[in-house]
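By convention, each integer encodes one residue's backbone shape. The lines below illustrate.
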Amino acid sequence: MAQSDMPTMRSRRLGNELRRLRIEAGLKVTDAAKALECGQPKVSQIENGKRGIRPLDLTVLFNLYGVEDEAYQASLRRLAREIHKVDWWSSQGHLLHDSLKDYLTLEADSDAVRTYEPSVLPGLLQTEAYMRAIFEAGQRPENVDALVETRMKRKELLAPTGDFRLRTVIDAPVLHRINGSRQVVREQLEYLLKAAQNPSVTLQVLPVSAAVPTWQYVPVHIFTLRGEPPADVAWLEHMTGGTLLEQRRDVQVYVQGWNDLTAAALSPSESRRYIRGLLEESGS
């Protein structure tokens, strides 16, 4: 990957972690530059995610910062290698904005995601007809097929033999707002029931009567990133893209909010019964 193509989500994550280690060690950029026998701009570019780092330089920084945990070192070394990784969605080019590319990178680098959607069904649980209706309402016609193809490709994460886990809470009104014909509605509800049987998926419905503070009703995705130790980050969606939260104190607010949502939601078995009830109504 050319330096001009950076920063990327992975290079920013690596840079943030190296900056954190340096600060916790009580060192300045000048100290890191001296150890690496380079100028301060190089260290700043690494920490800002604007350039990668050589394995040897990473070893020097580990020694300088007193990082002895071999599993943690291995995680950062893997991340350093993967900033050059070419992901399957790279070929989509201009069709995918930077925020979506960042989201896809987080998804690909995670063991699990916890997601709450108050207005739409989670992308990984949408039928092709459902997602096509969404894209046709807000995208140029010539872009719809490629965007649908990208979202369908993401579903491969939920292969029963894979190690990815999806936990989702769906707001009940979303299930009553499935746009399309009766057939489209039935197909989407049937698909949710089928997905709920997948060992990789935990699906809960949040009923209208649930007593949850209104400030928690925001779309949020909590990713558990692979590594030693695993790290949680929170992704907040808004109309113009998304915002990544990495600081533990921020992420914990949303983890607690997620715990409150799952406690207030129907159990997985009750949720399946709720969806089956809607399916029966749609056939009447």
